[in-house]
């Protein structure tokens, strides 16, 4: 019979190995379930549920299993079950998983759902409201902001400008101090809000509001925006100047948009380069009286092209 010291050593070693073995079992269960997702989704769902139950406390594997469960239920068209699983998944973001990992997963699911549910307004509304509520409770201001921007973009793409405006008000407020003045530390976020709002006013041809926001956007100095954001602002500014027949200003903005889109690797750069050529030609023609009369048919700057 072993000594007390031997027994203690044995007990100590066993307690160290047991959690590792348990982790391996949970990991195997997760990957076995994931392997069934395409061929037998119902069995996969049962397997993922087992992963959640196998963990003694909320941790990474349960979070991953719930993420896969959400996607599977969505593919199967079981939206109630999907939302139940999603709500359970969101309970993990406070402390069970790291903030960076939870943000990555939530963004992934948002893109997954948003990409194919644009016509299912009720589901989108419930999905985003659930997400935003959980992020508020977790005090994750950064992802709350990005999530609202994503929702804004969805409503913009399907011309739901009324819904957009409600979100824009919240986003503007989040970029202000308690006294209502602009928070200079949030210049980058403010430019992101301006960019989506400027697109809305460009689409609705509200040049008055567009000009106001365009001027505000260019006056923001305390920001390091993504070049795509500045590309959007400059492109919309170019269209605004074109509508006012300010060809030189339009050409300048379109060229700035082209440079920003090019830096971001965005295909909009090609269209903006075409705009640069068009507005530059119009600027050249208008500055030569003879060609201006020949091209426009008048001397007051109003076109008669296509008119008899």
Tell me what you see in this structure.
InterPro entries: 26S_Proteasome/COP9_Components. Residues 1-23 are annotated as: Disordered. This is Cop9 signalosome complex subunit. It comes from Solanum tuberosum (Potato). By secondary structure, the protein is mainly alpha-helical. It has helices at 4-35, 41-54, 60-75, 79-90, 99-114, 121-137, 141-157, 161-174, 187-203, 207-219, 227-243, 247-264, 268-286, 289-296. It has a domain at 1-139: Serine Threonine Protein Phosphatase 5, Tetratricopeptide repeat, CATH 1.25.40.10. The chain has 14 helices and no strands.
What is this entry, summarized?
The chain is mainly alpha-helical and 308 residues long. The protein has 14 helices and no strands.
Helix content: over 70%
Please give the count of helices: 14
SSE run:
HHHHHHHHHHHHHH
Which architecture of the domain at 1-139 would the CATH scheme give at its second level? Alpha Horseshoe
Strand tally is 0
Question: Could you please say which CATH topology of the domain at 1-139 applies here?
Answer: Serine Threonine Protein Phosphatase 5, Tetratricopeptide repeat
CATH uppermost class of the domain at 1-139: Mainly Alpha
**Uncertain segments:** 5-17, 290-308
Radius of gyration: 28 Å
- Say which CATH homologous superfamily of the domain at 1-139 is assigned: Tetratricopeptide repeat domain
Terminal CA distance: 113 Å
Structural class call reads mainly alpha
What is the percentage of strand-forming residues?
Answer: under 5%
Mean pLDDT: 84
Shape: elongated
Q: Tell me about the biggest sheet?
A: none
